[in-house]
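Forwarding these from the shared drive since the link keeps breaking.
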Amino acid sequence: GDERLISGTQIPLTVKEFRAQVALHHNTFTESQPLPGVLALLSHLSSATKPPIHLAVASSTTTPFFATKTSHLPSLTSHFTPLTCLFSDDADMQTKKGKPAGDIYLLAMERINSSLTADDMRQLKPEECLVFEDSIAGVAAGRAAGMRVCWVPHEGLRGVCKGMEKDVLAGKMEEVEARLLALEASAEPKVGTEKTGDGLLTGSVEGERIISDDGWAEMLGSLQDFDYARYGIRV
Protein backbone atom coordinates (compact mmCIF):
# COMPACT_ATOMS: atom_id res chain seq x y z
CA GLY A 1 0.00 0.00 0.00
CA ASP A 2 0.95 3.64 0.38
CA GLU A 3 3.03 2.88 3.48
CA ARG A 4 5.21 0.44 1.53
CA LEU A 5 5.59 2.87 -1.38
CA ILE A 6 6.68 5.70 0.93
CA SER A 7 9.16 3.47 2.73
CA GLY A 8 10.58 1.90 -0.42
CA THR A 9 11.17 5.22 -2.18
CA GLN A 10 12.10 7.24 0.91
CA ILE A 11 9.50 9.92 0.18
CA PRO A 12 9.72 12.45 3.07
CA LEU A 13 5.97 12.45 3.73
CA THR A 14 3.55 10.82 6.13
CA VAL A 15 0.85 8.58 4.65
CA LYS A 16 -1.72 11.35 5.19
CA GLU A 17 0.51 13.93 3.51
CA PHE A 18 1.24 11.57 0.61
CA ARG A 19 -2.45 10.91 -0.02
CA ALA A 20 -3.16 14.63 0.11
CA GLN A 21 -0.48 15.22 -2.53
CA VAL A 22 -1.93 12.47 -4.74
CA ALA A 23 -5.37 14.11 -4.52
CA LEU A 24 -3.88 17.53 -5.22
CA HIS A 25 -2.18 16.28 -8.37
CA HIS A 26 -5.10 14.19 -9.58
CA ASN A 27 -5.35 16.13 -12.83
CA THR A 28 -1.70 15.41 -13.55
CA PHE A 29 -2.52 11.72 -13.87
CA THR A 30 -4.95 12.49 -16.69
CA GLU A 31 -1.95 13.70 -18.69
CA SER A 32 0.40 10.82 -17.89
CA GLN A 33 2.28 9.18 -20.74
CA PRO A 34 3.77 5.68 -21.18
CA LEU A 35 7.47 5.19 -20.53
CA PRO A 36 9.71 5.12 -23.61
CA GLY A 37 9.40 1.86 -25.50
CA VAL A 38 6.13 0.72 -23.88
CA LEU A 39 3.81 1.30 -26.85
CA ALA A 40 6.19 -0.34 -29.32
CA LEU A 41 6.61 -3.30 -26.97
CA LEU A 42 2.84 -3.77 -26.58
CA SER A 43 2.30 -3.44 -30.32
CA HIS A 44 4.86 -6.11 -31.07
CA LEU A 45 3.66 -8.48 -28.35
CA SER A 46 0.01 -8.19 -29.31
CA SER A 47 0.28 -8.42 -33.08
CA ALA A 48 3.71 -9.40 -34.34
CA THR A 49 4.71 -12.50 -32.39
CA LYS A 50 4.72 -16.15 -33.44
CA PRO A 51 3.05 -17.83 -31.63
CA PRO A 52 0.76 -15.05 -30.33
CA ILE A 53 1.54 -13.59 -26.91
CA HIS A 54 -1.35 -13.24 -24.48
CA LEU A 55 -1.32 -10.03 -22.41
CA ALA A 56 -2.75 -9.11 -19.02
CA VAL A 57 -2.62 -6.26 -16.50
CA ALA A 58 -2.08 -7.10 -12.83
CA SER A 59 -1.96 -3.88 -10.82
CA SER A 60 -2.24 -2.92 -7.16
CA THR A 61 -4.12 0.22 -8.12
CA THR A 62 -7.93 0.42 -8.22
CA THR A 63 -10.04 0.25 -11.37
CA PRO A 64 -11.10 3.94 -11.19
CA PHE A 65 -7.53 5.16 -10.62
CA PHE A 66 -6.23 3.06 -13.51
CA ALA A 67 -8.92 4.61 -15.70
CA THR A 68 -7.84 8.08 -14.59
CA LYS A 69 -4.29 7.38 -15.64
CA THR A 70 -5.04 5.59 -18.92
CA SER A 71 -8.42 6.69 -20.33
CA HIS A 72 -6.65 9.19 -22.59
CA LEU A 73 -4.27 6.47 -23.86
CA PRO A 74 -6.31 4.16 -26.11
CA SER A 75 -3.10 3.20 -27.89
CA LEU A 76 -2.08 1.53 -24.61
CA THR A 77 -5.34 0.13 -23.24
CA SER A 78 -6.49 -1.31 -26.58
CA HIS A 79 -4.01 -4.15 -26.17
CA PHE A 80 -5.86 -5.55 -23.15
CA THR A 81 -9.31 -7.05 -22.64
CA PRO A 82 -11.45 -6.32 -19.55
CA LEU A 83 -11.26 -10.00 -18.55
CA THR A 84 -7.47 -9.92 -18.28
CA CYS A 85 -7.20 -6.58 -16.46
CA LEU A 86 -6.90 -7.21 -12.72
CA PHE A 87 -6.85 -4.54 -10.02
CA SER A 88 -6.89 -4.54 -6.23
CA ASP A 89 -10.65 -3.91 -6.11
CA ASP A 90 -11.48 -6.84 -8.42
CA ALA A 91 -14.04 -9.19 -6.87
CA ASP A 92 -11.72 -12.18 -7.34
CA MET A 93 -8.94 -10.39 -5.45
CA GLN A 94 -10.96 -9.98 -2.27
CA THR A 95 -10.01 -13.48 -1.12
CA LYS A 96 -6.43 -13.15 -2.37
CA LYS A 97 -3.31 -11.44 -1.05
CA GLY A 98 -1.97 -8.34 -2.76
CA LYS A 99 1.62 -7.78 -3.82
CA PRO A 100 4.24 -8.85 -2.77
CA ALA A 101 2.29 -12.13 -2.76
CA GLY A 102 2.06 -13.69 -6.21
CA ASP A 103 -1.73 -14.15 -6.14
CA ILE A 104 -2.62 -11.38 -8.59
CA TYR A 105 -0.21 -12.68 -11.23
CA LEU A 106 -1.41 -16.25 -10.87
CA LEU A 107 -5.00 -15.04 -11.14
CA ALA A 108 -4.12 -13.06 -14.27
CA MET A 109 -2.65 -16.23 -15.77
CA GLU A 110 -5.83 -18.12 -14.87
CA ARG A 111 -7.88 -15.42 -16.61
CA ILE A 112 -5.78 -15.78 -19.75
CA ASN A 113 -6.13 -19.56 -19.67
CA SER A 114 -9.89 -19.30 -19.27
CA SER A 115 -10.05 -17.11 -22.39
CA LEU A 116 -8.17 -19.53 -24.61
CA THR A 117 -10.07 -21.39 -27.30
CA ALA A 118 -9.43 -24.74 -28.92
CA ASP A 119 -7.46 -22.96 -31.64
CA ASP A 120 -5.19 -21.25 -29.12
CA MET A 121 -2.04 -22.57 -27.57
CA ARG A 122 -2.13 -24.91 -24.59
CA GLN A 123 -2.71 -23.63 -21.06
CA LEU A 124 0.03 -21.36 -19.76
CA LYS A 125 2.26 -22.26 -16.84
CA PRO A 126 3.88 -19.71 -14.47
CA GLU A 127 7.37 -20.40 -15.79
CA GLU A 128 6.16 -19.44 -19.28
CA CYS A 129 5.02 -15.98 -18.15
CA LEU A 130 7.05 -12.77 -18.23
CA VAL A 131 6.23 -9.98 -15.77
CA PHE A 132 7.07 -6.33 -16.41
CA GLU A 133 7.29 -4.35 -13.17
CA ASP A 134 8.39 -0.96 -11.90
CA SER A 135 8.02 -1.56 -8.15
CA ILE A 136 9.93 -3.54 -5.55
CA ALA A 137 6.76 -5.24 -4.31
CA GLY A 138 5.81 -6.10 -7.87
CA VAL A 139 9.13 -7.83 -8.51
CA ALA A 140 8.65 -9.85 -5.33
CA ALA A 141 5.13 -10.76 -6.47
CA GLY A 142 6.32 -11.94 -9.86
CA ARG A 143 9.03 -14.06 -8.25
CA ALA A 144 6.55 -15.48 -5.73
CA ALA A 145 4.30 -16.50 -8.63
CA GLY A 146 7.19 -18.43 -10.20
CA MET A 147 7.39 -16.14 -13.23
CA ARG A 148 10.30 -14.41 -14.95
CA VAL A 149 10.51 -10.70 -14.19
CA CYS A 150 11.76 -7.59 -15.98
CA TRP A 151 12.15 -4.74 -13.51
CA VAL A 152 12.11 -1.29 -15.13
CA PRO A 153 12.20 1.16 -12.20
CA HIS A 154 11.77 4.90 -12.39
CA GLU A 155 15.17 6.60 -12.26
CA GLY A 156 14.42 7.92 -8.76
CA LEU A 157 13.75 4.43 -7.41
CA ARG A 158 16.75 3.10 -9.30
CA GLY A 159 18.94 5.64 -7.54
CA VAL A 160 17.52 4.84 -4.12
CA CYS A 161 18.12 1.12 -4.68
CA LYS A 162 21.66 1.54 -5.96
CA GLY A 163 23.69 -1.38 -4.61
CA MET A 164 20.57 -3.36 -3.66
CA GLU A 165 19.41 -4.30 -7.15
CA LYS A 166 20.30 -7.97 -6.72
CA ASP A 167 18.19 -8.28 -3.56
CA VAL A 168 15.26 -6.61 -5.32
CA LEU A 169 15.59 -9.01 -8.25
CA ALA A 170 15.72 -11.96 -5.87
CA GLY A 171 12.39 -10.87 -4.39
CA LYS A 172 13.90 -10.04 -0.99
CA MET A 173 11.60 -7.09 -0.41
CA GLU A 174 11.70 -7.14 3.38
CA GLU A 175 15.49 -7.08 3.40
CA VAL A 176 15.56 -4.20 0.93
CA GLU A 177 13.03 -2.20 2.92
CA ALA A 178 14.95 -2.82 6.14
CA ARG A 179 18.14 -1.50 4.55
CA LEU A 180 16.35 1.54 3.15
CA LEU A 181 14.91 2.34 6.57
CA ALA A 182 18.34 1.91 8.16
CA LEU A 183 19.88 4.23 5.61
CA GLU A 184 17.16 6.80 6.20
CA ALA A 185 17.67 6.62 9.96
CA SER A 186 21.44 7.00 9.65
CA ALA A 187 21.14 9.76 7.04
CA GLU A 188 23.77 7.90 5.02
CA PRO A 189 23.84 9.17 1.42
CA LYS A 190 22.28 6.57 -0.86
CA VAL A 191 21.97 7.84 -4.41
CA GLY A 192 25.18 7.29 -6.32
CA THR A 193 26.83 5.07 -3.68
CA GLU A 194 27.87 1.55 -4.48
CA LYS A 195 28.33 -1.19 -1.92
CA THR A 196 30.85 -3.94 -2.59
CA GLY A 197 31.96 -6.98 -0.68
CA ASP A 198 28.52 -7.87 0.65
CA GLY A 199 27.35 -9.94 -2.32
CA LEU A 200 24.72 -7.45 -3.45
CA LEU A 201 26.39 -6.71 -6.76
CA THR A 202 27.61 -10.19 -7.63
CA GLY A 203 26.39 -11.63 -10.89
CA SER A 204 26.20 -10.38 -14.44
CA VAL A 205 25.98 -6.67 -15.28
CA GLU A 206 25.55 -5.65 -18.92
CA GLY A 207 25.27 -1.87 -19.37
CA GLU A 208 21.97 -0.90 -17.77
CA ARG A 209 20.98 -4.55 -17.41
CA ILE A 210 21.51 -6.27 -14.07
CA ILE A 211 20.66 -9.96 -13.92
CA SER A 212 19.73 -11.98 -10.84
CA ASP A 213 22.01 -14.83 -9.86
CA ASP A 214 19.45 -17.42 -10.96
CA GLY A 215 18.81 -15.63 -14.25
CA TRP A 216 15.09 -15.46 -13.53
CA ALA A 217 14.86 -11.68 -13.13
CA GLU A 218 16.68 -8.64 -14.45
CA MET A 219 16.67 -4.88 -14.22
CA LEU A 220 16.47 -2.85 -17.43
CA GLY A 221 17.13 0.86 -17.79
CA SER A 222 14.46 1.15 -20.48
CA LEU A 223 12.04 -0.86 -22.60
CA GLN A 224 13.33 0.74 -25.78
CA ASP A 225 14.90 -1.73 -28.22
CA PHE A 226 13.63 -4.62 -26.12
CA ASP A 227 15.55 -7.86 -26.71
CA TYR A 228 12.72 -10.24 -27.63
CA ALA A 229 15.02 -13.09 -28.59
CA ARG A 230 16.49 -13.11 -25.10
CA TYR A 231 13.13 -14.36 -23.86
CA GLY A 232 12.47 -16.74 -26.72
CA ILE A 233 9.93 -14.37 -28.31
CA ARG A 234 9.83 -14.39 -32.09
CA VAL A 235 8.71 -11.17 -33.79
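-- next protein --
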Amino acid sequence: MRLATRCPHLPSTAEALIRVFVPTPRPGASISIRRKLPISTLAVFHTRHASSFANARGTRSSQPLQSNRQPSNEPIRDEGIAVREIQIVNDDKSLRPTQSLQGALASIDRSTYFIIQVGDKVHPRYAETPRPEAGAPDTRPRIPVCKIVDKRSFRLSQAEKRKPKKNAALLTKQIELNWAISQHDLNHRLDRLKEFLNQGKRVEVVFGRKRKGWMQRKDVTEQEAHALLHQIREAVKTVEGSNEWQKMNGQVRGALVVFFEAKKDKP
Protein backbone atom coordinates (compact mmCIF):
# COMPACT_ATOMS: atom_id res chain seq x y z
CA MET A 1 0.00 0.00 0.00
CA ARG A 2 1.37 3.42 -0.88
CA LEU A 3 1.95 5.77 2.04
CA ALA A 4 0.09 9.04 1.96
CA THR A 5 2.24 12.11 1.47
CA ARG A 6 2.38 14.69 4.25
CA CYS A 7 0.16 17.61 3.63
CA PRO A 8 2.07 20.91 3.75
CA HIS A 9 -0.62 22.63 5.77
CA LEU A 10 -0.38 20.14 8.66
CA PRO A 11 1.99 21.35 11.45
CA SER A 12 4.97 19.30 12.67
CA THR A 13 5.16 18.01 16.26
CA ALA A 14 7.51 20.82 17.35
CA GLU A 15 5.31 23.44 15.76
CA ALA A 16 2.26 22.00 17.46
CA LEU A 17 3.96 22.08 20.89
CA ILE A 18 5.09 25.68 20.38
CA ARG A 19 1.59 26.72 19.49
CA VAL A 20 0.20 25.02 22.61
CA PHE A 21 2.73 26.22 25.25
CA VAL A 22 3.99 29.53 23.86
CA PRO A 23 1.53 32.43 23.88
CA THR A 24 0.79 33.99 20.53
CA PRO A 25 2.97 37.13 20.29
CA ARG A 26 1.52 40.48 19.67
CA PRO A 27 2.07 41.95 16.21
CA GLY A 28 5.62 43.26 15.91
CA ALA A 29 6.94 41.34 18.93
CA SER A 30 9.80 38.86 18.52
CA ILE A 31 9.21 35.19 19.18
CA SER A 32 11.25 33.53 21.95
CA ILE A 33 10.79 29.89 22.87
CA ARG A 34 12.90 30.22 26.06
CA ARG A 35 10.71 30.44 29.10
CA LYS A 36 11.78 33.16 31.48
CA LEU A 37 12.11 32.06 35.08
CA PRO A 38 11.31 34.40 37.96
CA ILE A 39 14.32 36.32 39.31
CA SER A 40 13.89 34.82 42.78
CA THR A 41 14.12 31.30 41.35
CA LEU A 42 17.32 32.13 39.48
CA ALA A 43 18.86 33.68 42.60
CA VAL A 44 18.17 30.58 44.69
CA PHE A 45 19.62 28.32 42.00
CA HIS A 46 22.73 30.46 41.65
CA THR A 47 23.33 30.64 45.43
CA ARG A 48 22.95 26.91 46.03
CA HIS A 49 24.95 25.63 43.09
CA ALA A 50 27.65 28.29 43.09
CA SER A 51 28.39 27.62 46.77
CA SER A 52 28.48 23.89 46.10
CA PHE A 53 30.99 24.33 43.30
CA ALA A 54 33.08 26.70 45.39
CA ASN A 55 33.15 24.25 48.32
CA ALA A 56 34.09 21.40 46.06
CA ARG A 57 36.91 23.40 44.51
CA GLY A 58 38.09 24.63 47.90
CA THR A 59 38.15 21.10 49.29
CA ARG A 60 40.27 19.87 46.43
CA SER A 61 42.75 22.73 46.58
CA SER A 62 43.18 22.64 50.36
CA GLN A 63 44.27 19.02 50.37
CA PRO A 64 47.95 18.54 49.44
CA LEU A 65 48.80 15.96 46.86
CA GLN A 66 49.80 12.64 48.33
CA SER A 67 53.40 11.63 47.65
CA ASN A 68 55.45 8.55 48.34
CA ARG A 69 57.79 10.20 50.82
CA GLN A 70 59.95 8.34 53.29
CA PRO A 71 59.04 8.43 57.02
CA SER A 72 59.81 11.75 58.71
CA ASN A 73 62.27 10.12 61.12
CA GLU A 74 64.54 9.01 58.27
CA PRO A 75 67.06 11.19 56.41
CA ILE A 76 65.79 12.96 53.30
CA ARG A 77 66.83 11.02 50.22
CA ASP A 78 66.74 10.98 46.42
CA GLU A 79 63.92 13.10 44.93
CA GLY A 80 62.80 13.96 48.44
CA ILE A 81 65.73 16.39 48.65
CA ALA A 82 63.74 18.61 46.23
CA VAL A 83 66.52 20.98 45.10
CA ARG A 84 68.34 21.45 41.82
CA GLU A 85 71.93 21.36 43.09
CA ILE A 86 73.73 19.34 45.75
CA GLN A 87 77.25 18.54 46.90
CA ILE A 88 78.33 14.95 47.50
CA VAL A 89 80.63 14.24 50.44
CA ASN A 90 83.14 11.43 49.97
CA ASP A 91 84.15 8.83 52.55
CA ASP A 92 87.27 10.87 53.35
CA LYS A 93 85.04 13.92 54.17
CA SER A 94 86.10 15.80 51.03
CA LEU A 95 83.40 17.50 48.97
CA ARG A 96 82.81 16.98 45.27
CA PRO A 97 82.04 19.95 43.02
CA THR A 98 78.46 21.22 42.92
CA GLN A 99 76.28 19.11 40.63
CA SER A 100 72.62 18.74 39.77
CA LEU A 101 70.54 16.32 41.82
CA GLN A 102 69.22 14.66 38.67
CA GLY A 103 72.75 14.22 37.36
CA ALA A 104 73.88 12.66 40.63
CA LEU A 105 70.93 10.26 40.64
CA ALA A 106 71.62 9.30 37.02
CA SER A 107 75.25 8.50 37.88
CA ILE A 108 74.46 5.78 40.47
CA ASP A 109 72.88 2.35 40.34
CA ARG A 110 69.56 3.22 41.99
CA SER A 111 68.73 -0.42 42.64
CA THR A 112 71.72 -0.52 45.00
CA TYR A 113 72.31 3.02 46.27
CA PHE A 114 70.51 5.97 47.86
CA ILE A 115 71.54 9.61 47.95
CA ILE A 116 70.73 10.94 51.43
CA GLN A 117 71.05 14.46 52.81
CA VAL A 118 73.43 14.62 55.77
CA GLY A 119 73.55 18.39 56.23
CA ASP A 120 73.90 21.68 54.40
CA LYS A 121 76.39 24.51 53.92
CA VAL A 122 76.70 27.92 52.32
CA HIS A 123 76.53 27.54 48.56
CA PRO A 124 80.06 27.74 47.08
CA ARG A 125 78.84 30.47 44.75
CA TYR A 126 78.22 32.69 47.79
CA ALA A 127 81.12 31.51 49.96
CA GLU A 128 83.02 34.74 49.35
CA THR A 129 80.05 36.86 50.40
CA PRO A 130 80.83 38.63 53.70
CA ARG A 131 79.43 36.97 56.77
CA PRO A 132 76.65 38.82 58.60
CA GLU A 133 77.45 40.63 61.79
CA ALA A 134 77.48 38.74 65.08
CA GLY A 135 73.94 37.89 66.18
CA ALA A 136 72.44 38.51 62.73
CA PRO A 137 70.96 35.54 60.82
CA ASP A 138 73.02 34.13 57.97
CA THR A 139 70.82 34.66 54.91
CA ARG A 140 73.33 33.43 52.35
CA PRO A 141 71.90 30.66 50.11
CA ARG A 142 72.73 27.17 51.27
CA ILE A 143 73.18 23.88 49.44
CA PRO A 144 72.42 20.36 50.73
CA VAL A 145 75.40 18.14 51.51
CA CYS A 146 74.59 14.57 50.52
CA LYS A 147 76.13 11.14 50.70
CA ILE A 148 75.81 8.03 48.53
CA VAL A 149 74.93 5.05 50.73
CA ASP A 150 74.28 1.40 50.13
CA LYS A 151 70.57 0.63 50.44
CA ARG A 152 71.03 -2.56 52.42
CA SER A 153 73.39 -0.98 54.95
CA PHE A 154 71.13 2.05 55.22
CA ARG A 155 68.04 -0.05 55.95
CA LEU A 156 69.88 -2.15 58.52
CA SER A 157 71.11 0.97 60.33
CA GLN A 158 67.62 2.49 60.32
CA ALA A 159 66.12 -0.74 61.68
CA GLU A 160 68.73 -0.74 64.44
CA LYS A 161 67.82 2.84 65.37
CA ARG A 162 64.13 1.93 65.58
CA LYS A 163 64.78 -0.85 68.09
CA PRO A 164 63.71 0.07 71.63
CA LYS A 165 66.64 1.11 73.75
CA LYS A 166 67.58 -1.19 76.58
CA ASN A 167 66.76 0.09 80.00
CA ALA A 168 70.01 0.68 81.88
CA ALA A 169 68.26 -0.26 85.12
CA LEU A 170 67.62 -3.77 83.77
CA LEU A 171 71.34 -4.15 83.04
CA THR A 172 72.44 -3.23 86.56
CA LYS A 173 72.82 -5.87 89.26
CA GLN A 174 73.38 -5.43 92.99
CA ILE A 175 75.49 -7.59 95.28
CA GLU A 176 75.11 -6.98 99.01
CA LEU A 177 78.01 -7.51 101.40
CA ASN A 178 78.86 -6.68 104.97
CA TRP A 179 82.24 -5.67 106.25
CA ALA A 180 82.60 -8.79 108.40
CA ILE A 181 81.71 -11.29 105.63
CA SER A 182 83.39 -14.69 105.80
CA GLN A 183 85.86 -15.69 103.11
CA HIS A 184 83.60 -18.51 101.96
CA ASP A 185 80.65 -16.19 101.45
CA LEU A 186 82.88 -13.57 99.86
CA ASN A 187 84.19 -16.06 97.28
CA HIS A 188 80.61 -16.91 96.33
CA ARG A 189 79.70 -13.22 95.92
CA LEU A 190 82.83 -12.57 93.87
CA ASP A 191 81.91 -15.40 91.53
CA ARG A 192 78.50 -13.75 90.99
CA LEU A 193 80.18 -10.40 90.46
CA LYS A 194 82.41 -11.77 87.69
CA GLU A 195 79.48 -13.63 86.15
CA PHE A 196 77.46 -10.41 85.83
CA LEU A 197 80.43 -8.53 84.39
CA ASN A 198 81.01 -11.24 81.81
CA GLN A 199 77.37 -10.76 80.77
CA GLY A 200 78.11 -7.10 80.06
CA LYS A 201 76.18 -5.75 83.03
CA ARG A 202 76.94 -3.09 85.56
CA VAL A 203 77.27 -4.21 89.14
CA GLU A 204 76.79 -2.23 92.32
CA VAL A 205 78.51 -3.75 95.35
CA VAL A 206 76.51 -2.51 98.32
CA PHE A 207 77.81 -2.57 101.87
CA GLY A 208 74.93 -2.22 104.29
CA ARG A 209 71.24 -2.53 103.50
CA LYS A 210 69.62 0.75 102.64
CA ARG A 211 66.51 -0.01 104.68
CA LYS A 212 68.35 -0.97 107.82
CA GLY A 213 71.10 1.60 107.56
CA TRP A 214 74.50 0.72 109.00
CA MET A 215 75.61 -2.86 109.28
CA GLN A 216 77.20 -4.27 112.42
CA ARG A 217 80.93 -3.61 112.32
CA LYS A 218 82.08 -6.57 114.46
CA ASP A 219 85.48 -5.11 115.26
CA VAL A 220 86.39 -4.66 111.55
CA THR A 221 89.33 -2.31 111.40
CA GLU A 222 89.99 0.34 108.78
CA GLN A 223 92.83 -1.80 107.44
CA GLU A 224 90.61 -4.89 107.15
CA ALA A 225 87.91 -2.89 105.36
CA HIS A 226 90.37 -1.57 102.78
CA ALA A 227 91.80 -5.09 102.35
CA LEU A 228 88.26 -6.31 101.55
CA LEU A 229 87.80 -3.57 98.95
CA HIS A 230 91.19 -4.42 97.45
CA GLN A 231 90.19 -8.08 97.14
CA ILE A 232 86.98 -7.11 95.33
CA ARG A 233 88.84 -4.82 92.91
CA GLU A 234 91.39 -7.53 92.16
CA ALA A 235 88.56 -9.94 91.30
CA VAL A 236 87.08 -7.38 88.92
CA LYS A 237 90.42 -7.02 87.13
CA THR A 238 90.26 -10.69 86.14
CA VAL A 239 87.33 -9.84 83.85
CA GLU A 240 88.84 -8.31 80.72
CA GLY A 241 87.81 -4.71 80.13
CA SER A 242 85.96 -4.29 83.43
CA ASN A 243 86.63 -1.34 85.66
CA GLU A 244 85.32 0.87 88.44
CA TRP A 245 83.40 3.38 86.32
CA GLN A 246 82.22 5.74 89.06
CA LYS A 247 83.68 6.98 92.31
CA MET A 248 82.41 4.94 95.25
CA ASN A 249 79.66 6.56 97.25
CA GLY A 250 79.57 6.32 101.03
CA GLN A 251 81.95 5.64 103.89
CA VAL A 252 84.38 2.79 104.47
CA ARG A 253 83.19 0.56 107.35
CA GLY A 254 79.75 2.13 106.91
CA ALA A 255 77.13 2.32 104.17
CA LEU A 256 79.02 2.23 100.89
CA VAL A 257 78.33 1.52 97.19
CA VAL A 258 81.10 0.60 94.74
CA PHE A 259 80.32 0.74 91.01
CA PHE A 260 81.75 -1.66 88.42
CA GLU A 261 80.99 -2.13 84.74
CA ALA A 262 81.98 -4.49 81.97
CA LYS A 263 83.61 -3.69 78.65
CA LYS A 264 81.19 -1.83 76.37
CA ASP A 265 81.33 -4.25 73.45
CA LYS A 266 80.62 -7.35 75.52
CA PRO A 267 77.39 -9.18 74.57
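The longest strand covers residues 113-122. The CA atoms of residues 57 and 177 lie 77 Å apart.

- D.
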